[in-house]
Specification:
The chain is of the alpha/beta class. The protein contains four helices and four strands; from the N terminus they run αβαβαβαβ.
Protein backbone atom coordinates (compact mmCIF):
# COMPACT_ATOMS: atom_id res chain seq x y z
CA UNK A 1 0.00 0.00 0.00
CA UNK A 2 2.85 2.38 -0.79
CA UNK A 3 2.05 5.60 -2.63
CA UNK A 4 3.51 6.29 -6.08
CA UNK A 5 5.41 9.31 -4.76
CA UNK A 6 7.32 7.32 -2.17
CA UNK A 7 8.09 4.47 -4.58
CA UNK A 8 10.52 6.74 -6.42
CA UNK A 9 12.59 7.23 -3.27
CA UNK A 10 12.35 3.57 -2.30
CA UNK A 11 13.51 2.49 -5.76
CA UNK A 12 16.44 4.92 -5.74
CA UNK A 13 17.48 3.66 -2.31
CA UNK A 14 17.23 0.05 -3.52
CA UNK A 15 19.38 0.86 -6.57
CA UNK A 16 22.09 2.51 -4.48
CA UNK A 17 22.07 -0.37 -2.02
CA UNK A 18 22.18 -2.87 -4.91
CA UNK A 19 25.27 -1.19 -6.39
CA UNK A 20 27.15 -1.57 -3.11
CA UNK A 21 26.02 -5.19 -2.68
CA UNK A 22 26.93 -6.21 -6.22
CA UNK A 23 30.24 -4.32 -6.15
CA UNK A 24 31.18 -5.96 -2.86
CA UNK A 25 30.12 -9.50 -3.87
CA UNK A 26 31.51 -9.25 -7.44
CA UNK A 27 29.45 -12.16 -8.82
CA UNK A 28 30.35 -13.72 -12.15
CA UNK A 29 26.74 -14.61 -12.90
CA UNK A 30 23.47 -13.11 -11.73
CA UNK A 31 20.36 -15.23 -12.40
CA UNK A 32 17.04 -13.64 -11.52
CA UNK A 33 13.38 -14.08 -12.25
CA UNK A 34 10.01 -12.42 -12.12
CA UNK A 35 9.62 -9.95 -9.27
CA UNK A 36 10.51 -6.29 -9.58
CA UNK A 37 12.96 -6.58 -6.73
CA UNK A 38 15.48 -8.10 -9.12
CA UNK A 39 15.52 -5.03 -11.40
CA UNK A 40 17.82 -2.91 -9.15
CA UNK A 41 20.28 -5.83 -8.84
CA UNK A 42 20.37 -6.35 -12.60
CA UNK A 43 20.70 -2.61 -13.19
CA UNK A 44 23.57 -2.43 -10.70
CA UNK A 45 25.44 -5.32 -12.33
CA UNK A 46 24.96 -3.89 -15.81
CA UNK A 47 25.86 -0.35 -14.72
CA UNK A 48 29.09 -1.47 -13.06
CA UNK A 49 30.05 -3.33 -16.23
CA UNK A 50 29.19 -0.44 -18.56
CA UNK A 51 30.76 2.33 -16.49
CA UNK A 52 34.24 1.04 -17.14
CA UNK A 53 34.52 -1.51 -14.39
CA UNK A 54 34.31 -4.28 -17.00
CA UNK A 55 37.99 -5.04 -16.61
CA UNK A 56 37.58 -5.66 -12.90
CA UNK A 57 33.92 -6.61 -12.88
CA UNK A 58 32.45 -8.86 -15.56
CA UNK A 59 29.11 -10.13 -14.32
CA UNK A 60 26.77 -11.77 -16.82
CA UNK A 61 23.05 -11.31 -16.21
CA UNK A 62 20.42 -13.94 -17.04
CA UNK A 63 16.72 -13.19 -16.56
CA UNK A 64 14.27 -16.10 -16.37
CA UNK A 65 10.69 -15.01 -16.99
CA UNK A 66 8.12 -16.35 -14.58
CA UNK A 67 6.37 -19.63 -15.39
CA UNK A 68 2.98 -17.92 -15.16
CA UNK A 69 3.82 -15.52 -18.03
CA UNK A 70 2.46 -17.43 -21.02
CA UNK A 71 1.52 -14.77 -23.59
CA UNK A 72 3.21 -11.54 -22.45
CA UNK A 73 6.20 -10.41 -20.43
CA UNK A 74 6.06 -9.17 -16.86
CA UNK A 75 6.97 -5.55 -16.13
CA UNK A 76 10.39 -6.73 -14.95
CA UNK A 77 10.79 -8.67 -18.18
CA UNK A 78 9.84 -5.67 -20.29
CA UNK A 79 12.34 -3.50 -18.43
CA UNK A 80 15.20 -5.99 -18.71
CA UNK A 81 14.48 -7.59 -22.11
CA UNK A 82 17.00 -5.54 -24.11
CA UNK A 83 19.54 -5.14 -21.30
CA UNK A 84 20.41 -8.59 -20.00
CA UNK A 85 22.87 -11.03 -21.58
CA UNK A 86 20.34 -13.87 -21.83
CA UNK A 87 16.57 -13.75 -21.55
CA UNK A 88 14.96 -17.13 -20.86
CA UNK A 89 11.23 -17.86 -21.16
CA UNK A 90 9.37 -20.99 -20.12
CA UNK A 91 6.76 -21.06 -22.88
CA UNK A 92 7.45 -21.43 -26.63
CA UNK A 93 4.77 -18.81 -27.43
CA UNK A 94 6.87 -16.13 -25.73
CA UNK A 95 9.99 -17.13 -27.65
CA UNK A 96 8.06 -16.75 -30.90
CA UNK A 97 6.72 -13.35 -29.88
CA UNK A 98 10.02 -12.00 -28.50
CA UNK A 99 12.99 -12.85 -30.75
CA UNK A 100 15.72 -12.28 -28.12
CA UNK A 101 14.02 -14.69 -25.74
CA UNK A 102 15.26 -18.26 -25.49
CA UNK A 103 12.91 -21.13 -24.79
CA UNK A 104 15.01 -23.76 -23.07
CA UNK A 105 12.34 -25.79 -21.28
CA UNK A 106 9.89 -25.40 -18.46
CA UNK A 107 12.00 -24.93 -15.36
CA UNK A 108 9.47 -25.86 -12.70
Amino acid sequence: HQSWVTTVFTTLYACLHAVTLVARARPQLLICNGPGTCVPLCAAALALRVLGFGLLFDCRVVFVESFCRVTSLSLSGKLLYHLVDRFVVQWPQLAQRYPRAEFVARLC
